[in-house]
Design a protein that fits this description.
With 435 residues, the protein is an alpha/beta fold. The protein is built from 15 helices and 24 strands. Helix 12 links the parallel strand 22 and strand 23. The chain is globular. Bound molecules: uridine-diphosphate-N-acetylglucosamine. The site of uridine-diphosphate-N-acetylglucosamine has 21 residues, from helix 1, helix 5 and helix 6.
């Protein structure tokens, strides 16, 4: 099993180019099903989740060709309307197949989702919205079986602005007969990116980025121009925290700064200097980390996907911070591991009290979900001594070339496999180019 080995305490500095957003690429890849033909997508991040989504598309009959961040995808024919368990269990976002398959085939058989273990994560809102458009569902054998004769536009009021739920409903509504309105829709930048993509296929949509999205269904959609995926605000935010936590000077490039505003606001409150350009953001920290209270909220609030990383930073603050998680009920699994690194965090329900410590120290830690893994890497960068982060499959789902990017910023970090364990006593540089 691979692991990341970090010799902490180095100040990170330099520039890092940010990849396309995982959470925009996944819905856009599967949404290609609503428009038969050849699609060309650019700035697609090279991640395990993206490979899983391409495998899923391959399984339903749509072959793809990947060259770096460029993906060509042929959705001319769909021969199978199922997202099987072996793929869905690896990636919860496979549930995004529901809307596009129903719109394309009139049926969809999607295994109930797996993915990050951060709570119960039901899909009742997805099903409620699609039912309003005329779909019927049955749950059996661990699968959701959906059917529809004719999608018909409707007004849908979501109980919660679910991100993938909004995306599932949108991708079905674009081919429904008549008008649909999604109220209390999610407003995340990745929703806006999906809408821009659907619009490039000929869809008629208004109101993306607000909580009311209006869709005029059309009879058919077709790929016309290549589409480039939005930059990943969570990857960018993670490198900004890497700069902040090491008292460094890091610039993230090829980003959409507006989408980083909630993270920038908290970075400034912790005492960092943040400069913002048209497609870049630079963070510097000279003084101590100031404590800040952080509450996660749906966009444009502070993103839950940055909570674990900021908790690592606040662990080094000069004082007490309170982190409140309002999106997922079980998203503090990084806390015991951060404490193993010397942090002082205690939780009570959805609140975590972070008492800043003067220093953290290296330890072996186990990642439990994607962003939790990122927070452990960040803490390891700041900790004194050696940190080993195990269970890297979570990180591989969401961070493209993480180790290489951190090395380029000056981190003493390497990815090693168990067979290289015997080299542990050797200098880290020996293992850096292996595995
Ligand atoms: C998406 C993101 C994930 C991010 C999350 C919140 C993708 C692929 N994943 O996940 O990285 O952490 O948004 O920003 O884009 N809920 C229900 N019923 C539903 C749907 C959701 O109760 O039908 C609840 C969930 O249990 C959770 C909350 O709503 O408590 C938010 O979930 P949601 O916005 O749906 O997250 P995802 O779309 O799964």
């Amino acid at each position: 099993m691979d692991k990341i080995v970090i010799d902490g305490g180095r100040r990170l500095s330099g520039r890092v180019a940010i990849a396309g957003a995982k959470n925009a690429a996944l819905p856009i890849l599967i949404a290609t099903l609503v428009a038969p033909g050849e699609h060309r997508l650019n700035n697609v991040p090279q991640l395990v989740d993206v490979s899983s989504m391409l495998s899923l598309l391959g399984r339903v009959g749509c072959p793809s060709l990947v060259h770096g961040g460029a993906v060509r995808l042929d959705t001319s024919r769909v021969s199978f309307c199922e997202a099987p368990y072996d793929l869905v269990r690896k990636m919860r976002a496979s549930v995004l197949a529901l809307g596009p398959l129903l719109a394309r085939c009139g049926e969809a058989h999607v295994s109930l989702p797996g993915g990050c273990a951060i709570g119960v994560r039901p899909i009742d809102q997805h099903l409620k919205g699609l039912e309003r458009l005329g779909c019927r569902f049955e749950l059996s054998g661990g699968y959701v079986h959906g059917h529809v004769d004719q999608l018909v536009g409707a007004r849908i009021v979501l109980d919660f602005p679910t991100v993938t739920g909004t995306e599932n409903i949108l991708t079905a509504a674009v081919l429904a007969k008549g008008e649909s309105v999604i109220e209390n829709a999610a407003r995340e930048p990745e929703i806006v990116d999906l809408v821009n993509f659907l619009r490039s296929l000929g869809a008629q949509i208004e109101g993306e980025g607000t909580s009311s999205i209006r869709v005029q269904g059309v009879q058919a959609l077709a790929p016309k121009t290549p589409y480039s995926i939005l930059p990943d605000r969570i990857e960018a935010g993670t490198y900004l925290v890497a700069g902040a936590i090491t008292g460094g000077d890091v610039t993230v490039e090829r980003v959409e700064p507006r989408d980083l505003e909630p993270a920038i606001e908290i970075l400034r409150a912790t005492g960092c200097v943040v400069d913002v350009g048209d497609t870049w953001v630079r963070v510097r920290r000279h003084g101590p980390v100031q404590p800040v209270d952080v509450t996660t909220r749906p966009h444009p609030g502070f993103p839950t996907d940055m909570q674990a990383q900021f908790m690592a930073l606040l662990s080094m603050a000069k004082g007490r911070s309170v982190v409140t998680e309002t999106i997922f009920e079980n998203r503090f699994m990084h806390v015991p591991e951060l404490n193993r690194l010397g942090a002082d965090v205690s939780t009570d329900g959805n609140r975590a009290v972070v008492n800043g410590v003067d220093s953290m120290h290296g330890a072996t830690v186990m990642a439990t979900d994607l962003r939790a893994s990122a927070s452990l890497v960040l803490a390891g960068l700041a900790a004194e001594g050696r940190t080993e982060v195990l269970r890297l499959y979570h990180l591989d789902r969401g961070y493209e070339r993480l180790v290489e990017k951190l090395q380029a910023l000056g981190a003493d970090v390497a990815r090693v496999t168990d067979d290289l364990e015997r080299l542990r006593s050797a200098p880290l540089a020996v293992t850096q180019n292996v595995g």
